[in-house]
Amino acid sequence: MRTYQQVLDFLYSQLPMFQRTGAAAYKDNLDNTIRLDEMFDHPHRSFKTIHVAGTNGKGSVSHMLASILQEAGYKTGLYTSPHLKDFRERIRVNGEMITEEAVVRFTDLFQAKNELEKIEPSFFELTVSMAFDYFRSMNVDVAVIEVGLGGRLDSTNIITPEVSVITNISFDHMALLGDTLPKIAAEKAGIIKKDVPVVVGETAPETRIVFEQFAEKVQARLAFADQEYLTDYSMLTVDGKQSLNIRKNDQLIYSDLKLDLLGIYQRHNVPTVLKVIDLLNEKGWNLSESIIRKGLLNVIQNTGLLGRWQIIGHNPLVVCDTGHNQAGIKLVVEQINQTAWKALHIVIGMVSDKDQDKVLALLPTNAKYYFTKASIPRAAEPEVLAAKAERFGLSGDCYPTVRQALSVALANAGENDLVFVGGSTFVVAEIL
């Protein structure tokens, strides 16, 4: 049997991986996924699922749902991507990462079985298959499954869930998903299944009709969470939590609902979670208010979620966030503006296949920038990013590594300053 490190080397170097190489690793069909599912005797049929898609917020919503289900006593699987520190973050059961031994065992078994089949899966296709097989072996009651990219052609889209969830739609991965919001919405709507209720987190005029048409076609009950639930206000508490007041149909139903995720953008995600819980309760899941409160209070502890307005240092305040597209960065900038600081330092790197101009146009001009790159082939060169940023009034210096950029930022920052690290999931991964 190979070592865990040898297996990781195989997964990273021998299989096409979107996170590293981009569109070259994207498959425009589910053929490999279906063949892998047959190879391992359809493991996803052994447990209930909740399917979560969307442009932004799907990771947070997935982790919040998993935390609530765990607090209710359900043995809960959680599949998310990408990982930040450890490959095994992608596959968890009750918050515990898949074991190294299980990763090795599955990969060796796949290669043994594949002697005859000769499937050539992508990294993501094989990882999804690994997750489903592991969840079956662990006898989970339910698994929360986060879509990797899009929805219709995503490898996770062989499940028939209890509830389908689409958090929101904004511009991202346009080369693969389409260059208009309705086109992107149609790809996300591909997870809507016959007779399976679907929750859309945020209503937008351009995309609402897309979801209505998809849902009507397969007779899926459709709910827009923000048409029922509203976060009245949110504030940070002295004990380091976020407190929210939530209204449902104009009536206050949750006062001082505490969340251990500090990003103000979670005020958009919590209503989506609550609407999903409503639908699960209608199906008999018995998720009470006290369980919901415990679940939201302990998301990080229960699920290990990282990188969402995560404070990693004080004096100066150092924060990282994985927001990386136009909609995500807009909310990050809003939070930066609501945070107290004397001077602002931004360590930023982006990938080359993103619409960098739309992100750079949103960033504050009153900051010192440290342009850098994550150690992946998709990363944009710092000098290229800096040249584009200059057109938007953003100035700073270039650094070859994220660590070096952060080190200089920390050396320059006073104790009352804010150092923000972001622009890409992979930049955040390198400092956690």
From TrEMBL:
Alphabetized PANTHER family for the sequence: DIHYDROFOLATE SYNTHETASE-RELATED, FOLYLPOLYGLUTAMATE SYNTHASE-RELATED
Segments forming domain Mur ligase central: 52-270
Function: Functions in two distinct reactions of the de novo folate biosynthetic pathway. Catalyzes the addition of a glutamate residue to dihydropteroate (7,8-dihydropteroate or H2Pte) to form dihydrofolate (7,8-dihydrofolate monoglutamate or H2Pte-Glu). Also catalyzes successive additions of L-glutamate to tetrahydrofolate or 10-formyltetrahydrofolate or 5,10-methylenetetrahydrofolate, leading to folylpolyglutamate derivatives.
Domain Mur ligase C-terminal stretches: 307-424
Name of the protein this chain belongs to: Dihydrofolate synthase/folylpolyglutamate synthase
A GO cellular component entry from the record: cytoplasm
Pfam families recorded: Mur_ligase_C, Mur_ligase_M
Pathway(s) of this molecule: Cofactor biosynthesis; tetrahydrofolylpolyglutamate biosynthesis; Cofactor biosynthesis; tetrahydrofolate biosynthesis; 7,8-dihydrofolate from 2-amino-4-hydroxy-6-hydroxymethyl-7,8-dihydropteridine diphosphate and 4-aminobenzoate: step 2/2
Gene Ontology terms for molecular function: ATP binding; dihydrofolate synthase activity; metal ion binding; tetrahydrofolylpolyglutamate synthase activity
Catalytic activity: (6S)-5,6,7,8-tetrahydrofolyl-(gamma-L-Glu)(n) + L-glutamate + ATP = (6S)-5,6,7,8-tetrahydrofolyl-(gamma-L-Glu)(n+1) + ADP + phosphate + H(+); 10-formyltetrahydrofolyl-(gamma-L-Glu)(n) + L-glutamate + ATP = 10-formyltetrahydrofolyl-(gamma-L-Glu)(n+1) + ADP + phosphate + H(+); (6R)-5,10-methylenetetrahydrofolyl-(gamma-L-Glu)(n) + L-glutamate + ATP = (6R)-5,10-methylenetetrahydrofolyl-(gamma-L-Glu)(n+1) + ADP + phosphate + H(+); 7,8-dihydropteroate + L-glutamate + ATP = 7,8-dihydrofolate + ADP + phosphate + H(+)
Enzyme Commission number(s): 6.3.2.12, 6.3.2.17
Family membership noted in the UniProt record: Belongs to the folylpolyglutamate synthase family.
Highest rank taxon of the organism: Bacteria
A biological process from GO: folic acid biosynthetic process
PROSITE patterns xref list: FOLYLPOLYGLU_SYNT_1 (PS01011), FOLYLPOLYGLU_SYNT_2 (PS01012)
Alphabetized UniProt keyword annotations: ATP-binding, Folate biosynthesis, Ligase, Magnesium, Metal-binding, Nucleotide-binding
